[in-house]
Write a structure and sequence with these properties.
alpha+beta; Muramoyl-pentapeptide Carboxypeptidase, domain 2; 5-stranded mixed β-sheet; 4 helices; 5 strands; about 15% strand; globular; binds zinc ion
């Protein structure tokens, strides 16, 4: 299992309230390897806006009507199997989604993607839930 990646650092996945080390401790390494391959194939930067979230952080999102956050017991972010990636460009979004689908297939991983155009991010996870899935945040 690799402990370092070509394009990503564990710190990019730290929980915003738990801080340093929480990404390394809680993120699934295969998931970051998956993102690394996507990043390499896409050829453009992928900024992580949210990676690991502790249950307390997730609960605060659930309580905020601005978000459509999943309960902490079911959130793939709390399991270290998800990330939100800043993508605001229609072309880059298309390339990202296509590339992620292809690489998930190559790596035999489940793939779930949610798109928010309004908030400018794509959620991606490899959680053990019904898959494949592609949804749009309202
Ligand atoms: Zn936290």
């Amino acid at each position: 299992m690799p402990m370092s990646f070509e394009y990503f650092k564990f710190s990019e996945f730290d929980c915003s309230c738990c801080g340093k080390g929480s990404g390394k401790q809680n993120m699934n390494h295969d998931f970051i390897l998956f993102l690394d391959k996507i990043r390499k194939s896409c050829g453009f930067g992928l900024a992580i806006t949210s990676g690991y979230r502790c249950k307390r952080k997730q609960q605060s999102l659930v309580l905020n009507p601005k978000y459509q956050a999943t309960h902490p017991d079911k959130s793939s972010h709390c399991k270290g199997l998800a990330a939100d990636i800043k993508i605001t460009n229609d072309e880059k979004r298309a390339i990202f989604v296509g590339t992620a689908m292809d690489i998930a297939s190559e790596m035999d991983l489940p793939i779930r993607i949610g798109i928010s155009k309004r908030q400018g991010f794509c959620h991606i996870d490899i959680d053990n839930k019904p898959t494949p899935r592609l949804w749009i945040y309202s």
